[in-house]
Amino acid sequence: MFQSECEKVKRSIVDVLNAPKSLVSIDVNDVRDLFQEGGVIHTFNASVGASIKKRMESLMDLIIVNTKKYEPFSHALIFFFFPEDRPLLMEELKPFSDWIESVPGELRIKWGMATQSTQEIRAIVLLQ
Question: Are 86 and 50 spatial neighbours (Cβ–Cβ below 8 Å)?
């Protein structure tokens, strides 16, 4: 079990670092700096259709449900992927910033975004 969780974390980090069309990039130094204190890192993916109404609210609802399993956490890396023809708009990021404000305690966070070929909005989430 622990081995497969480590593999999942490694795959998630590689997917973030190798995102070919990053608009807001995460690099290896960001990952190292964020998770340097040690401890178990948990990861999950969440996604919703890119054409649904309130797509970012729906995605954040999934993220909130999943992050509850790993509370308490004080470090988070969240990387969003979206289709080029349906970009994330600044006003759509409000549910994300509201969530950041709602996390109890002090949260160190890094986030980024990239385009992808599929018609979904996806987030890779790593928590520690």
Answer: yes
CA distances from 12 to 34, 37, 85, 103 (A): 15, 19, 24, 22
H or E stretch at 91: none
Contacts 24+ apart (CB under 8 A), 35-38: 35/75, 35/77, 35/126, 35/128, 37/75, 37/128
Q: Is the pLDDT reported for residue 86 higher than 80?
A: yes
Note the pLDDT tens digit of each residue in 36-75: 988 999 999 999 999 999 999 999 999 999 999 999 999 9
CB 95 within 8 A of CB 21: no
Please give the Cα distance from 41 to 5 (Å, whole number). 9
